[in-house]
Design goal:
single chain, eight-stranded mixed β-sheet, five-stranded antiparallel β-sheet, binds S-adenosylmethionine
């Protein structure tokens, strides 16, 4: 039993079952022992999963970051040269490559602010950006500036890492899923009464699905809801005077997210590049993430005064951003190894069976 599991076990013995959302918060972000707050390596070949900015070797600007930089410099050149804020920056790889690429495009932001809740991640970002010579450009803050600012806000794979409520709907009742101890003291699932607010949110989703003629859910129906979206988006954009927001993640609009076929929800664990559904195992040692309900993000964004500019698959967005122009120089290169590696990176980002369709890009403006 690892240290975090011991702590959770003691808490449950003392206070009773935990709501799943609190378990997820602890498993991902508990001081020192959470998945993102310990020293373990999370990203890349030696970690548990690979994100789009990590697909290229460090000596090359990733096609993902290069395309984003092209998009920003072409579509929003003036905002791009003001403040650029990245939230949930992980290893810092996207920040490094965006800065390298924007420098080449002569469109450097005045300042690049990283907002990252994990201290060890911040330290990794500092080391990487220091090696790349960008420490004079970047700073770390817990939130965007409180004074009005204009510029760009980017988050890649932030929203899927927010803790979610897991619920189960029966014909006659709604349960909030929680975590308890079984008779061998192992973490196990339990059902708790759903708080009124959660029940009301689920009811509202079902009413909306009904108006969109989505067939009714099979019972029991298990899924999840992310309650922190509103507060997070409001905190990130309330002092934005004018700007452009790019949210990139795997997810669906509500009619797909809460489709009857998806009756076990979208939560998944990743360990050593294997996705699995043993969500309570080894807390703090494996990733936990849920797909993003982009309809909920759009609604929260609208409450924050943000207007949608586009909602595209990652493949559509990267094509429009000119990813092919970045790949072209490698296609007839005499260096076959690099050509094959860049082709593999391109396919991973673009193919519908890889990240091309599952990942969406939501663009908003204020
Ligand atoms: C799945 S990782 C994505 C990392 C990176 N963006 C990438 O694409 O490789 C999620 C990151 O978001 C951070 N994070 C989660 N919630 C956050 C919040 N509320 N504010 C800032 N960072 C957060 C995590 O610590 C982690 O670094």
């Amino acid at each position: 039993m690892n240290a975090l599991q011991k702590q959770i076990t003691c808490d449950i013995r003392e206070h009773g079952p935990l709501a799943f959302i609190d378990f997820m918060e602890t498993a991902l972000y508990a001081d020192d022992h959470g998945y993102y707050t310990s020293d373990r390596s999370v990203f890349g070949a030696s970690g548990d999963f690979v994100t789009a900015p990590e697909l290229a070797p460090p000596e090359q600007i990733s096609l993902f970051a290069g395309s984003l930089a092209q998009h920003l410099s072409r579509q929003h050149p003036s905002l791009c040269q003001q403040t650029l804020i990245e939230v949930g920056a992980g290893s810092g790889r996207l920040a490094m490559d965006l800065l390298r690429s924007l420098q080449q495009l002569d469109c450097m932001p005045e300042r690049y602010i990283l907002i990252e809740r994990s201290r060890p991640m911040q330290q990794r970002q500092q080391a990487l950006l220091g090696q790349a010579g960008f420490l004079d450009k970047v700073c770390w803050q817990s939130m965007p500036p409180t004074q009005d600012w204009s510029g760009i806000l980017i988050a890649n794979e932030l929203l899927d890492a927010l803790p979610v409520e897991r619920f189960r709907v029966y014909p006659e009742r709604i349960a909030r899923l929680g975590v308890t101890l079984d008779d061998q003291d192992q973490l196990s699932w339990t059902e708790l009464p759903a708080p009124a607010e959660l029940a009301a949110q689920i009811k509202a989703i079902r009413t909306r699905l009904d108006t969109e003629h989505v067939p009714d859910w099979p019972m029991p129906y298990t899924s999840e809801i992310c309650p922190d979206l509103d507060d997070l988006l409001a905190a990130l954009t309330s002092s934005m005077h004018s700007g452009f927001v790019l949210l990139i993640d795997y997810g669906y609009l509500q009619h797909e997210y809460y489709h009857p076929q998806r009756h076990m929800g979208t939560l998944v664990s990743h360990l050593a590049h294997r996705g699995h559904f043993d969500l309570l195992a080894r807390p703090g040692e494996q990733d936990l993430s849920a797909f993003v309900d982009f309809s909920a993000v759009l609604a929260a964004a609208s409450r924050c005064g943000l207007q949608p500019l586009g909602f595209q698959t990652q493949a559509e967005f990267l094509l429009q951003a000119g990813i092919d122009e970045l790949l072209q120089p490698y296609l007839d290169a005499s260096d076959t190894a690099t050509m094959l590696q860049r082709n593999a990176e391109f396919k991973q980002l673009m193919l519908p069976t890889e990240m091309g369709e599952k990942f969406k890009v939501l663009s908003l403006r204020k």
